[in-house]
Amino acid sequence: MNIGIIGVGTIGGMLLEKLRADSFYVVNRTKEKLEKYKGMNNLNICDTVKEVYNKSDIIFLAVKPQNIDEVLYEIRKTQIFNKIIISTVAGKDLKEIQEKTGKDGIIRIMPTILSKTGNGVTSVTFNDTINNKLKEKIINLLSSLGKIVEITEANLNAFTILSSSSPAFISLIVESFIDGAVNIGIKPKVAKEIFFETLKGTIKLLEEEKIEFSALRQMVSSPGGVTIQGLYSMEKRGIKGTIMEGIYESYQKMNNM
Ligand SMILES: NC(=O)C1=CN([C@@H]2O[C@H](COP(=O)(O)OP(=O)(O)OC[C@H]3O[C@@H](n4cnc5c(N)ncnc54)[C@H](O)[C@@H]3O)[C@@H](O)[C@H]2O)C=CC1
Ligand SMILES: O=C(O)[C@@H]1CCC=N1
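Above: query sequence and A1CAB SMILES. Below: predicted holo structure tokens.
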């Protein structure tokens, strides 16, 4: 199977590294970005969207939303109709891609940067031209990215914020813990090591022991102790509301794309 990737940035690069194909056909606006992949023996660097489209069986669209229309326009000009187009682009729906390309086999995935290590959850949404056998083949292809879930397009925006945007939110929160630790005298490297273990252990405990969040808070907070003092300060400043609001605003922006 030949896979095409149009736009080899963060997500296109991740797809190139993680997917399995007989050959890859790729195009990127700035060719220098492709230098680091030149050692791959099944990689073909193309000059145009048309070349990638013509030579591939499945074509991933991985450009930013502001660049997608120019790509769809190039695809529209091609006269081959039996290809599968998989868009990673946030906010561009199946119908619009179908209309703008004049092609039928359209799929959306919502990828995550966590696939770089084979983790995270990637969603897949098929249009109604894709039969069950083909769905199975696509899910199988995507499985090297991590966990794959099929969702409806109506759920895609909320999924995007929870799965694809969250690594950025989590990174900010984790960084705040490290800065907080440095502020009380712990070296950044040591703080990172200890906090990463603490984070992994907390998730494991919540998952494996099925402990409720509030129960875990109680288990750690001694009456009149230090933990409850910290929780009180965080709650007073509305940490939960701040994070919930951030998620909601992201979602609103996604709905208005
Ligand atoms: N970065 C992330 O974590 C996620 C991104 N996405 C979606 O993935 C898509 C790609 O995002 P990123 O990889 O972050 O962007 P990026 O900016 O890292 O990569 C896009 C690449 O497309 C190239 N490009 C632009 N116009 C082109 C054209 N006409 N022909 C060929 N190449 C062209 C650019 O040179 C760039 O290398 C976006 O639509 C975004 O909504 C979805 C989920 C997560
Ligand atoms: O921020 C964005 O627009 C993209 C979609 C989800 C993650 N990154």
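The chain has a mean pLDDT of 97.
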